[in-house]
Amino acid sequence: MQARRPDAIVIGSDQAGLLDGRVLDKPGSEANARAQLAALSGRRHQLVTAVAIAHPGGTLGFTDVTTLSMRALSEAEIARYVAAEQPLDCAGSYKIEALGVSLFDRVESDDHSAIVGLPLLRLSRELRALGLQVP
Predict the structure, then answer these.
(1) In 29, 69, 77, 115, which residue has its Cα 20 to 30 A from 123's Cα atom?
(2) CA separation, residue 43 to residues 10, 23, 121 (Å)
(3) Helices (H), ranges, 27-134
(4) pTM of the prediction?
């Protein structure tokens, strides 16, 4: 996009879950999702959101780290959640913006919007610094 429209601002973002320094892959199957949730049960992990902004003057990037404390889950709770939400394409095997929020005791973040994929507080600051009017 930047090559076709050099005046454009292009924003990209992605997330990765980390448990004990290991990346939490997207599970791809119900069995893998149940295993991943069992590993997270009763533990803290991080959700790292990376953002890149390509603009006419170059590219800048930043990351946001959220720490999540999952409550202890029974096998039945895990199975019920996976069946209801089918989080097979989600790192960490949960959708915190939906039923997955019920799996947690605590969420520690400077920007609550980061948890669903885009840290809007920092993004807004960066866009204003580039001269855009937000809103």
Answers:
(1) 69
(2) 36, 15, 27
(3) 30-40, 75-85, 120-129
(4) 0.86
Q: Are 102 and 95 in contact (CB under 8 A)?
A: no
In angstroms, how far is CA 72 from the centroid of its own chain?
21
Please give the structure tokens belonging to residue 90.
């989600």
Q: What percent of the chain is modeled with pLDDT above 90? A: 88
4 pLDDT above the threshold of 90? no
Candidates 7, 14, 64, 105; catalytic one: 14
**Residue 6 CB contacts under 8 Å (≥ 6 apart), including other chains:** 56
CA distance 127 to 129: 5
The model's confidence at residue 1, banded by pLDDT at 50, 70 and 90, is low
Residue 28 gets the label, from left (phi > 0), alpha (psi -120 to 50) or beta, of left
Active-site residue 14, yes or no?
yes
